[in-house]
Request: fold
Amino acid sequence: MNEDIIVAIATSRLEAAISMIRVSGPDCIAFVQKFFTGKIIEKPSHTINYGYIIDDGKRIDEVLVNIYRGTRTFTGEEMVEINCHGGVYITSRVLEVCIKNGARMAERGEFSKRAFLNGRIDLSQAEAISDIITAKNSYATDLALKGISGSISGFIEDLKEDLIQIITQIEVNIDYPEYDDVEELTASSLLPRSANLLTKMNKILDDSKNIKLVKEGIKTVIIGRPNVGKSSLLNALLREDKAIVTNIAGTTRDIVEGSISIDGVVLNMIDTAGIRETEDIVEQIGVDRAKEYAEKADLILFVVDASSPLDDNDYEILKIIRGKQAIVLLNKSDLDMIVSKNMIQTLYNESNLAKKENKEMQEIPIIEVSAKKNHGIDEFETVLKDMFFAGNLSFNDEIYITNIRHKTALQDAYHALSRVNDSIDAGMPEDFYSIDLLDAYESLGSITGETIGEDLVNEIFSKFCMGK
Ligand code: GDP
Reply:
């Protein structure tokens, strides 16, 4: 149990109607009573109480104070929330009074850390709380909510349970070979069990592959020859009612110049400035940009002018984007079209043959659009969702690993367990692989925080918001 009382402003430090100051620690209701005029000492838990915050007998602010007794609180210890007026000055005055009376300023994430240390939530749930605060769209929010409700924890606990059974059985076999009533775990009976665990881990890692793109957005670049309609198309996407433009700086090394949310799928547009270059001698620019971005973008939108003949540049670009996540937008479909989907697909296949790597037909999504008339945008959305999320963006019952720390730990567990299978295949004795089994167990335990050191716990919580 923690001895001291911590305090922090839980709301944002901007002028607002109301601010909330959070207090947590043993006997913190009695502590707040020292400088609050409402009578809270005798009041039942989970009540809202009216009064004034006072300092040296002087009224500071008129507030509502929520009290939470016992251990059924967010932190697992007694808590008070002071709702004061939301001015920047008045909020810090109330905070100051708390500190003057002996509370300590909370560190970042310290409320959540106490909740974790008091066993109210596990580490993966605490991290999901942090995720919901930083969520940028409804899908990231849904995923974080699942994490808070313990979906990851449940999955990890099941895996750990299976592992511990195997580990115990091996230990018993080694330590007490004379025990007849414990079934001997032979290589042939262990292999399917660990293979089954590996399959489960692999599935969740695989399902979660594109989750980063849901949470953070798809790094997208628009390329194509000058005048094919790249900026018109960008504007058309931005003009859509459902498109929201925000500036989220610093999410990637590249400068994200705006994010378009298309029915929940967030496209982070990079280097849109390049689109507006207007020099005449930029024929090559589409090709150069394609080369540069084929490597770093998650998605390439290749715009072709359907009303003018294709040229070498288009052919070059098709070669470059081969095998990458790309969509061809056949723009200006409102005019007489002299370029067809078939022509693009044929060229694309020829570019494949030219590389002599893959003689099979490879389909590239090609969509007829008109930036001018706003045609084809719906089809574009559908293709986009199919491409990244197999058409499914609902995330109903599946479990996803959304946190990079969890993913790394799960991968570590997977590799340790793979080593077990290798040892079995190589005919190694049982005691040889129990160490790898323990490694796998430990990696899984680090996700929920069971097998994790204090330093790492501190580091994780230090990334949380103040007052969280
Ligand atoms: P960029 O150089 O690739 O960015 O091309 P722009 O977006 O500047 O467009 C070049 C020209 O094509 C402009 O005059 C646009 O009005 C015109 N344009 C763009 N999209 C369409 C379209 O879908 N239909 C028609 N008819 N014209 C278009």
Q: What stands out?
A: DSSP finds 16 helices and 13 strands in the chain.
